[in-house]
């Protein structure tokens, strides 16, 4: 598996996101918690060393499943979490960036993941935040100074917000949406690559939207003889050597397709099909 350095850890470029391990719309318990734990164990047994999670998945459910499935954690496993938002009953997100809310989120992640320090915390930018983003990052930097966090990343940011955060503290990683169906984050990806900051692509399959049976991905995958998910993720990995993908799934079969991306090599004909040429 090709690897990348993130927050002092050498991990494979195909990670695992935990949101889909929870109930519908990342709210509540999954129908089969035991199977979700098996999916997590299979991911790690297959070489995954980057787990992306959050206390607001469930809420609390994804972190609990991670702890139940993977503790004691392997010394080379990097668990990244996110703070700065809470879920609404309809499955949406609202900002939770006041200092007390951020402190509570950090302690909640510590408790549910059952660790003494968080390895990597992504500070999510929320459009409805009542305070400037740099102030939010500053609060999280203070929490790191207290010894609760090892490294700080940013999430859902623009180039401007990334640079604002860099002016406050060292930024270990950027976590933004990026996939074949939405490349609006290209400027942030390019900027992070130039700076040598790893870029974690969340929703790298567009919540499955890029894999529709009549999609260009499905057609190109048939040409290449690989699973559509593997091809879509391989395309993303090709966009920058500093990019990792964190697809989520509740299926061990889909997990195998995702992990196969690391071995897929795109040729000119397949690239042209993916580009719609």
UniProtKB/TrEMBL annotation:
GO terms for cellular component: cytoplasm. It comes from the Bacteria. GO terms for molecular function: oxidoreductase activity. Gene3D superfamilies: NADP-dependent oxidoreductase domain. The keyword Cytoplasm does not apply. Coiled coil: none annotated. PANTHER family: AFLATOXIN B1 ALDEHYDE REDUCTASE, ALDO-KETO REDUCTASE YAKC [NADP(+)]. This is Aldo/keto reductase.
């Amino acid at each position: 598996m090709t690897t990348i350095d993130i927050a002092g850890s050498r991990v494979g470029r195909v990670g695992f996101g935990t949101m889909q391990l929870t109930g519908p719309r990342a709210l509540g318990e999954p129908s089969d918690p035991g199977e979700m734990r098996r999916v997590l164990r299979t991911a790690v047994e297959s070489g995954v060393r980057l787990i992306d999670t959050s206390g607001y998945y469930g809420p609390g459910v994804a972190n609990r499943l991670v702890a139940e499935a993977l503790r004691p954690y392997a010394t080379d496993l990097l668990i990244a979490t996110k703070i700065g938002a809470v879920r609404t009953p309809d499955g949406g997100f609202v900002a939770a960036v006041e200092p007390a809310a951020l402190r509570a989120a950090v302690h909640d992640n510590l408790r549910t993941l059952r660790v003494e320090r968080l390895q990597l915390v992504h500070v999510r930018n929320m459009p409805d935040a009542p305070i400037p983003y740099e102030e939010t990052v500053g609060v999280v930097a203070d929490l790191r100074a207290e010894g609760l966090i090892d490294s700080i990343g940013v999430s859902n940011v623009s180039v401007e917000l990334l640079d604002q955060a860099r002016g406050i503290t060292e930024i270990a990683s950027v976590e933004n949406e990026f996939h074949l169906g939405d490349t609006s984050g290209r400027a942030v990806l390019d900027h992070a690559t130039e700076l040598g900051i790893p870029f974690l692509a969340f929703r790298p399959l567009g919540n499955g939207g890029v894999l529709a049976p009549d999609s260009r991905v499905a057609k190109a995958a048939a040409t290449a003889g690989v699973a559509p998910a593997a091809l879509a993720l391989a395309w993303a990995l090709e966009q920058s050597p500093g990019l990792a993908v964190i697809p989520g799934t509740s299926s061990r079969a889909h997990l195998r397709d995702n992990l196969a991306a690391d071995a897929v090599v795109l040729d000119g004909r397949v690239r042209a099909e993916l580009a719609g040429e």
